[in-house]
What does this fold into?
Amino acid sequence: MAHNADYDGQWRLIWRRFRKHKLGFAGLLVTAAIYLVAVFAEFLAPADPNAISPRNTYAPPQSLHFFVTDKEGNSSFQPHVLGYKTKIDYDSGRRTFEENPHKVIPVGFFVKGHDYKLLGLIPTERHLFGPVKSRDRIYLLGADRLGRDVLSRMIYGTRVSMSIGLVGVTLSLVLGVLLGGASGYFGGWVDLVVQRVIEFLQSLPSIPLWIGLAAAIPASTPPVQTYLLITVILSIIGWTGLARVVRGKFLSLKTEDFVKAARLDGCSVPRVLVRHMMPSFASHIIAVVTLAIPGMIVAETSLSFLGIGLQQPVVSWGVLLQEAQNIRAISTAPWLFWPGFMVVVAVLALNFLGDGLRDAADPYAT
Amino acid sequence: MSEAVLEINDLSLAFPISRSLADWVAGRPGKVVRALNGVSLQLQKGETLGVVGESGCGKSTLARCIVRLYEPTSGSVRHHGQDIFDASVRGDRAYNRRVQMMFQDPFSSLNPRMTTGQILSEALRVHEMRSEDQIPERVAELLDLVRLPQDAAEKLPHEFSGGQRQRIAIARALAVEPEILIADELVSALDVSVQAQVVNLLLELQERLGLTVLFVAHDLRLVRHVSNRVAVIYLGRIVEIGDSETLFSSPSHPYSQALLSAAPSMDPDDKGQKVKLEGELPSPLNVPTGCAFHQRCRFADTRCHSESPSLRPLEGRGEVACHHVEKILHNA
It folds into this structure.
């Protein structure tokens, strides 16, 4: 069946309308960029996120310089950062870092670094940018308590944080469409039961519920399983909102004459659902789903920040923010908050995108 | 008399209203809306039967029962002698193919996400009436039939005017070569000039394709224009049925008289003696005993309170459900 060609008209109209929504379109670009970062995290990160460096604990961000001046006073183009001059204050046991103008660390594109598999398939050791000499270290966004590069960790964290939103929402979507659809289509006691369950779940305070459920995950669970369990926990509440939207759409569509006409034509129930009803609410569902992703991301971040979500060595924005939990970290290493900034950017971008999609979803409404 | 294609016998339909908590506590039984109270009529092959009545009298409910959107509480609908609500016939899609319905609102009856071509071919695919490669040909034929340009097949419903949409709806109904068309307020949503176009198209197609049409409308002049026979419905019951011209020129039932005289006349000299009705249409939640019309009827007596009149044929007229019809006509 030429389904794609069939609905081209509708999707083209939606796209045209979406293009006019400036904020939504900007949201789309930023979201796309963030997901690209998530996919190519290894390539984009200059350093191994788990490589520790005791000499560089809490090293501050280095700024990028573009020109070097040699002994004769000629300046030439060479992107570089300056190494640290480290002083240790033995009274307080702290290191203080200063830029050392004589210690030039050249930075280049497509440099060799730690090896990895691109997209999990192609083994390579090239990185988009990094120190030209692979033994050097650069800290564009500073280092954490074990001297790990915050920038690289943040890039790796993008993968987990952004994908947990997608996986969680997919799970919610399946539950929401099935239960909400049944609720709206069959009505009667099915509707009654599903709606009361939704009300019950929504009335539970979410954080304590999550804490309780997360505490039930044994500490020895492997990281991948923890990840999946956390998404399940997030979806337990996430599906309720989606189910309501789907139910509402079903209720309003069920009474439309064209659905009646389809039934009179002798279409089977699945055919009425898929061919006549689905296209009318698919675009709305996409918009609602987009708006649900940021909720998932924030929820994961909160759980991990509280230390009950994902655990080290898994890197997510929430896990990284755990580092910024104590006063000392905040006062001496404010750069540890960068992952929080990323959460804000991602959530805003997705919200704008969702708003734009929602406005564009019904191209026939004027 | 020609052959009856559809026989409706004593059809009744009551919708239960969910009981309120107060009802439940007081132990009162749930209320029911009695939309149809024993409708009997026959649809002859090739005719157009107009169904008229006030809002809420059960016109549309009747139409929906005929296409099996609602299941009647009692009574039967027979299509060529076969009861359409019979368990063995229920799942039979062929009946839905033979009897097609056209809806009132052309803005909600066409799927906004499907092109005209898809809308027209949908039923063909479901009933497997044409092979996949013959479908475009049939769609072109249908567009021709309702005088829409061929490029309409690629367009979405929102690109058409109301009249064009209603013509698409007619084409959709005709796609599966039905025998009976149920037109539920087919043109009520259109403005008058377009109404004429659509109705005339329908009449022309009826003649060409030998269709039988049940035309439900509240516009009396329109019904007079299109129908061979007319049934007047009051509170879910037929009060008078008969030849369109006779019924319109000299209605017999006191309700028909009142209803028809309520229609504005085009003749400026015709001041007319209006038959005015007192009171409101009683609620179908609480249908009066006896003749449902007795509360508003000038001729009602005690017999009308207790005894429900049945339809009986009158000399030179159709069938009328009134105890006093001879007396009324004699006095008039």
Observations:
- Residues 324 and 334 of chain A are 8 Å apart (CA to CA).
- The two ends of chain A are 31 Å apart (CA to CA).
- The first helix of chain A runs from residue 3 to 20.
